Amino acid sequence: MLEVKNLSKYYGEKQALDSISFSIDKEEAVGFLGMNGAGKSTTMNILTGYISASDGDVLIDGVDILTDPFKAKAKIGYLPEQPPLYPEMTVWEYLVFIYNLKKVKLHHKKTKLQKSREEYLQEIMELVKITAVKDRVIRNLSKGYRQRVGLAQALIGDPDILILDEPTVGFDPAQIIEIRQLIRELAKTRTILLSSHILSEVQAVCDRIIILHQGRIVADGSAEQLAEQLSGNLQIEMEIEGNAKTVLELLKKIPMVEDVQQNDGVSYMVYLCNQCKDSTAVRRSIFKSLSQANCVILSMSRKKLSLEEIFLQLTSETNMVQAEQTEQILTEEKGENTDDGNL
Amino acid sequence: MTAIYKREMRSYLTSPVGYVFLAVFFAISGYYFFATSLVSNVTDMSYIFSNLFSMVIFLVPMLTMRLFSEERRQKTEQALFTAPVRFTSIVLGKFSACLTMYLLGMGITVVYFLVLCAFQVPDVAVFCGNFLGLLLLGAALCAIGIFISSLTENQVIAVIGSLAVGLLLLFSNSFSPVVSNEFITAVIKEVSFYEHYIDFTRGLLNLSDLTFFISMTGLFLFLTVRHLERRRIS
Fold first, then answer.
1. What are phi and psi for residue A269, nearest 5 degrees?
2. Do A193 and A205 fall into the same domain?
3. How do residues B31-86 score in pLDDT, each as one tens digit?
4. B6 to chain A, minimum CA–CA distance in Å?
């Protein structure tokens, strides 16, 4: 349905996107996750044909957005980061304008839908719950309602693909739940790509998550897949009663255990080595050796990294690499400076 | 195109911009009508039209300044540019709305014509020629204003830019005696809006004047479309 190949984008010298590739199937809900400035909005602007890429291709249902934008844009509904609303118009006037702009009538003929414009727009307004503010001027609407009008705008014309840039910004918690439900409902019949910097939101709505960081895709898959792939080394959290020294010694002797840390008093953290994929055997031998030494295990649990932690890890690791690089450059420069001084 | 035309017309007529434009247009042209025709008991309307030349240069930027810059500032252009609409129809929609407002403004000259008819019917051919000239001048100015508006997201810059170009057009004639190079003098004379417009007020319908204004309009609308496309790519 949507295919992106080696997409790159430069803003002047700055590289915003670095050779991004992914494809989205029909009726799939995909979430773009990334911190501010990760390239989410840039990607979406390129997908919708608002800006063009410096390099790479975007195919919307097999149609290239650059060579045939007219046809490709008809398949997309886009809610940009800031809803594109004319403040001086009323909600109804605005929706009628978008309806005429997108020439929805033509589509109706194709699908043989015999609905009048009023009925059609009324349905969309009921779907996003803006019927009550129909005759109000957009300027006077709250942020939440503006966002809804923006969503309605994207839905007009029944596009196969919906691209939503941070759709829940500006809602209160109750409304967020409502909007998520609506998006899930919409996802049943169409392809949805949404972006967010809140992980739980993406998790709640999307089948698949693409994590972007500094213009690159650092992870791509379902929430479970990501957790599996990226959880790194296994850890076991324990509470053990007994002499700390012997406990540490005993634990370190057990195969596959890489490191043990005593946090405070009876609580310990056992880190397993890379090769260890399943901690059951290790836990069994921990139990045996500790019980032989009369050390009482009060609790033992595998520690699972939450997706939030994975996300933070992913985005901070690359940060660290970059920090190291800049540090290197700085020290090199310093070196050069001292060299100059010697000369 | 019609959707954009309708929206722009509504926007002119629900905001003060359209009414201020019309009010100023009517007031100043009314003064010219009073001073050049009624007071001096003349039915020759070409005086009004030649005076209107400098006035529309100052008034048209009022109509064009926000057409693209406002869309860009409020990010509403994202809706326009991601909808299945060609840039050409967006530009033409906005241009025709702008020209309609202008036409409403200069339509007042028809009223003056009718007023004069009460005393003595003026030369219809001269009036029509003048009317056409003013219309073509307005179209060219609208196109230039729209182009400048598409260059910036700041309305103030858009209006000052359009005014600067307007002033250049106004004064370009007074440059020619200063320049000694004959070639440059000839070029200035050829591109001068005033030189081409003044023929209309003399009652001349020159093919070269017609083509000049029409091609100026076409050129700047084309440049606007190209500029919007270029911005998408850069």
1. -130, 125
2. yes
3. 999 998 888 888 888 888 888 888 999 999 999 999 999 999 999 999 999 998 99
4. 8
